[in-house]
Amino acid sequence: MIQGFGGFYLTYYIPESRSKEDYSQVKIVGVDETSCAKFHKYVSLFVDLEDNKVLYVCEGKDASVISSFKEDLADHNGAPKNIEMFCSDMSPAFISGITEQFPGSSLTFDKFHVMKMVNEAVDQVRREEQHQNAELKKTRYVWLKNPNNLSLAEKEKLGSLKEMNLLTSKAYNFKLSLKYFWTYNDKLLAEVFLKRWYYWASNSQIEPIIEASKTIRSH
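Structure (tokenized):
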């Protein structure tokens, strides 16, 4: 229960302010979940990606949050048929909810979550390989950071590790190469690049990279 003046503000003034919102021009929506408390409690956030504005927040991260957003959209003069695109992670719940509730919209999987998945694959390779090579211990962020954000010491450490012909280094190269996908402005060239990357990654014999590539292909 929300108590005190702050609670009164939240339960009265925020709904009062939201009642005046007009979502009739909303066309591109981003959706993501975030942890709001301990014990795996989540909220889902819906954002107008053109105006960079939060539209709706609700508890949970299953498919029902999409239908909940649809109702709120209608309550604020919005129309499901006007939503041209959703941008989300690769959550099966979000995918099924969007497909069912907004059948006329396209679905884009955002770069952040795609690269996060590949980063996790690289780190899995590192954690497994560090049992045979102690040099890899405590180097997690050296492999996960954007190369441009590495400190001088980290760049030197990465350089020395890459000279050791490590499996982690090979996995890291798959990550770096995939980032080029987002530099293409031509759809056909981007598609050709992604197919080549998938073929290369899926035949890498590096299991976490293979699994990541299959997830990307299936989406």
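The chain has two domains: 25-109, 111-218. Residues 4-9 have pLDDT under 50 and may be disordered.
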